[in-house]
Input
Amino acid sequence: YGSTKIAIESFLNDMCQSESLDVVSLRYFNPVGSIKNGDLYEDPFNKPNNIMPRIIRVALGIDETISVFGNDYNTKDGTAERDYIHVMDLIEGHIKAMHFLSANKGFHTFNLGTGDKVSVLKLIDTFESLNNVNIPYKMAPRRDGDVEICYCDPSKALNSMDWECEYTLDDMCLDSWNAVKNLDIKK
Output
């Protein structure tokens, strides 16, 4: 994913140098959550790879446990740390990027994330405590290609587009569960 993103950004930057295109490239960090009314949420039903729908599968009783890949990282609790961002903040980031692009020429990149790192176990623990559900997990070996810690510096987005995250980890966990907890599922 990373090498493809770099190649595409390089191509778009070249296009912008020829003044035939103006581009804002948004670099997302780990999106989670649902829109506030619950009409749009991460699909937990089609064997997802992302962590939040996998947590939700356990909360809904579809899966018995979630696998946590790696507990021997050099982090506070040994699990990987990521920069989770609420999808509502991503929506606002797109809106701000469109406004920015209407007034700026060329090629621009912005990180969209909180700038905070949250471990996999902290995410699971937060989801459990806020939603009063049990999320059993099992430790599994690290996956090839996973990095220990990945979070961003979103200051350029704040300084250039007046964008910053408004939603917290608590919001992400609550909104993710509220969107799906009353769905009629067939196990």
